[in-house]
Amino acid sequence: MLDAAEALFARNGYHGTSMRDVAEATDTRIALVTYHFGTKDVLFNKVIERRASYMAHQRILALDAARTRAGDNPVPLEDLITGYVYPFVERSSHGGQGWKNYSLLISRVSNSPDWAKFISDHYDPIARQFVAEFRRSLPTIPEEDIYHAFSFMVGAMVALVSEPGRVESLSLRKFKSTNLEQAFKCMLPFLAGGFRALVDRS
């Protein structure tokens, strides 16, 4: 049921998906969907939560490894960016259709005021740990700028994994946006350069 609901929410949005749609997609009775989840809000939360939990675990593993490598020194910017962004890129690339659906769903809700608290509850605890390390790595940058830069990074990540087709359109089909691994290799120095440029600005 969660896979079917995820695909429907990704394609049609929250308001465009009903519990009846989920029941029809899974060839079950709507009463069974309601029995397991109660309301559409609960179902939606479960859809977001199951992959958010996995993503949080992967990111904290990456952050812990980066801290260990750095020892007493600040964690390099590239390691922080990779630790937060790459787990999502990797799953979107190699996690099958379910992760592609989830990526599209996150791109739908991540900038929606209606879901700000919802996304915050699932993603902010780990994000704050990364922000703290960015502050340690860039101590001369105003704290507010770090938060803005982190938000820009998240926005770029969401745009990448949602595969909107802008690269294809702009390049007249010469290049593809579906090779997320290759795109990340371009994104990493771009984002690191953006963070470093704030040092000169400060």
TrEMBL record:
Pfam families for this protein: TetR_C_30 (PF17939), TetR_N (PF00440)
InterPro entries: Homeodomain-like_sf (IPR009057), HTH-type_TetR-like_transc_reg (IPR050109), HTH_TetR (IPR001647), PsrA_TetR_C (IPR041586), Tet_transcr_reg_TetR-rel_C_sf (IPR036271)
UniProtKB keywords: DNA-binding, Plasmid, Transcription, Transcription regulation
GO molecular function: DNA-binding transcription factor activity; transcription cis-regulatory region binding
DNA-binding region listed in the record: 18-37
Name the UniProt record assigns to this protein: Uncharacterized protein
Organism: Cupriavidus taiwanensis
